[in-house]
Amino acid sequence: MNLQVHPTPDDATEAAADLLAGWLIAPDTRTLMVAAGNTPLDLYSRLEARRLSLVHLSVFALDEYVGVPLTEPRNCANLLRRTVGNAWGIPPDQFHVVSSERESALESVREHERQIEEAGGLDVLILGLGQNGHLGFNEPGSAFDCPGRLLELEPISVEANRKWFNGEHAPAYGVTVGMKTVLAARRILLLAFGPHKATAVSAMTSGPVTPLCPASSLRTHSDVTVFLDSAAAAGATGA
């Protein structure tokens, strides 16, 4: 795990954009998975500003809130469609999302992972870090070989969801690609900023490698680059 610590989120995001741009224009990069949420939005904006030709990419969403209307602009599908798919000029038929409707979410993520496998796996994966160490909606206790699934979220994740939707929704369920798909990605870039992420960063970098902290599994991967600001990096091993 390559840890890069920068004074501010702005500095860290600019460094991450430099690395990611190189990865995405490389001839051997064909598939990309992107996370939603606040943390990576500036990264996506900086990639848009560079006006790279990325029409060769097939882009997959990492996860989705369950029980949120398909038309909700802040759900993962619509957010990522605006900030990545449309912003980067990805052809619509190469942009893949997961359903937020309870009755179709599970089958949707299963088909999502089937498409990823058919495409040859993920070349690049962009992740955020949950305060409880989750990756996507793979909550603590998620086996490192688990498939995509629908699952109940921990209270800390539900509260984060409530804040994200400004109290209009507080989804208690999520649908996510599994840890098996996450760990099979060829290259992984993770962003974590702010003092509220310091405990999770510490567990990820220096705690036991255990499903109780899904992010700790990244220490078993051969090509992970983590971008931290100084607040999130407090106490991180190797930072």
Distance between the termini: 10 Å
Helix content: 25-40%
Strand order of the largest sheet: 1-10-9-6-2-3-5
* Helix-strand category: alpha/beta
Note poorly predicted spans: none
Order of helices and strands: EHEHEEHEHEEHEHEHE
Strand element count: 10
- Radius of gyration, taken over Cα atoms and rounded to an integer in Å: 16 Å
Query: What is the strand content?
Result: 15-25%
Anisotropy-based shape: globular
Number of helices: 7
> What's the oligomerization state?
single chain
Q: Averaged pLDDT, please?
A: 95
Descriptive overview:
It contains 7 helices and 10 strands. It has helices spanning 9-25, 41-49, 76-88, 102-118, 155-164, 179-184, 198-206, and strands spanning 2-6, 31-34, 58-61, 63-66, 95-96, 124-127, 149-152, 173-176, 187-192, 224-229. Strand 9 (187-192), helix 7 and strand 10 (224-229) form a beta-alpha-beta unit. The protein is α/β, with parallel strands linked by helices and 239 residues long. The strands form 2 sheets. It has a 7-stranded parallel β-sheet with strand order 1-10-9-6-2-3-5, with helices on one face. A 3-stranded antiparallel β-sheet has the order 4-8-7, covered by helices on one side.
